[in-house]
Predict the 3D structure of the following.
Amino acid sequence: MSKTKVGIINVTGYAGVELARLLYQHPQVELTSVTGRSAAGQKLGKVSPHLASIDLTIEAELGDVDLAFSAMPHKESAKEVIPLLNHDIKVVDISADFRLKNAAEYQSWYGFTHSAPQLLEQAVYGLTELYRSQVASAQLVANPGCYPTGAILALAPAVKEDLIEPDIIIDSKSGVSGAGRTLSLGTHYSEVNEDVSAYALEGHRHLPEIIQELKLLRPQQLPSVTFVPHLIPMTRGILTTCYASLTPGKVAAGKKGEEEVRQLYLDLYKDEPFIKVVEFPPHTKHTWGNNLCLIHPAIDHRTGRLIVISCIDNLVKGAAGQAIQNMNLMLGFPEVTGLEALAIYP
Ligand SMILES: NC(=O)c1ccc[n+]([C@@H]2O[C@H](COP(=O)([O-])OP(=O)(O)OC[C@H]3O[C@@H](n4cnc5c(N)ncnc54)[C@H](OP(=O)(O)O)[C@@H]3O)[C@@H](O)[C@H]2O)c1
């Protein structure tokens, strides 16, 4: 049986190379075309030696494919994606360009006027666990941001089941690859090594995405969310810790309540191939290089707060892996195809 042809727009960034690495192992698709502005005309294996087994030349324009991934920066991505949609090509966009439903939010959070607001309704938000059936029939999937993936999956059961008050704190720690490959002072080795810092206290661009999705999970209540991201000296991974007060009377006191919450998470995620509700606080190393999201709910009995910890690899479940999970559904393949690798440890 012939394989489905897929392509990557912008294979030179971190999300792009991770897509190429994962697609190489996929048994039902063939990566036939990759583009890259600064590297057009060069062999992929020369630009990214770890991908030398993939015999492709980086092109300026995408070739003939059935499905394309865009790993372009925001604002630039839409310009690439729109012509593909007009040619009936399926697209998974890893940028933020189609994630927000309200076009006005692009101006306030990203500083540009959206060029195709009519597509925002059509685009399916690609958090697979929440939108599985819509993803399967979508032409355009907006792959979620890395921070929102870990935060929304951690909070979804609690918000959906009205387990917590809508005043939520999300504290996330990300490895430096989350900031991409483009050079900046803040991500230099000597700035980041042996350093931990919070940033974007005035509001990170992933906040509207988190609020949009939490609102949809429980439309009766407007969530009030404080989200503080941190940069930590590691390459990959995001550890997110969410805090919110338990809704009075919703769960039993003491250990019994904690067991009830854990059971609720286990029940809601029982059929999810890439979510594991774990018994102990997870480590980012437990998801290094794979598509899992590990989640650990707990209760702070002294304050009556729910604490939920999640971890993902920002480049896999937070980007390329989730994009392939969505592609599998869009092309009618089993959802886990090509994504069953275990984490690399230590
Ligand atoms: N990194 C993550 O963990 C992560 C997770 C989820 C989503 N994403 C999203 O994925 C996309 C790519 O992120 P990344 O982390 O891979 O970024 P990156 O490593 O910084 O790569 C960005 C790439 O874009 C190219 N580029 C920059 N401006 C361009 C322009 N105007 N036109 C054409 N190419 C341009 C650069 O290549 P040249 O200058 O060499 O052409 C560079 O290779 C972004 O939208 C990001 O938000 C990233």
About this structure: Residues 146-160 form the longest helix (15 residues). Residues 146 and 318 are 4 Å apart (CA to CA). The domain at 4-122 is CATH 3.40.50.720 (Rossmann fold).
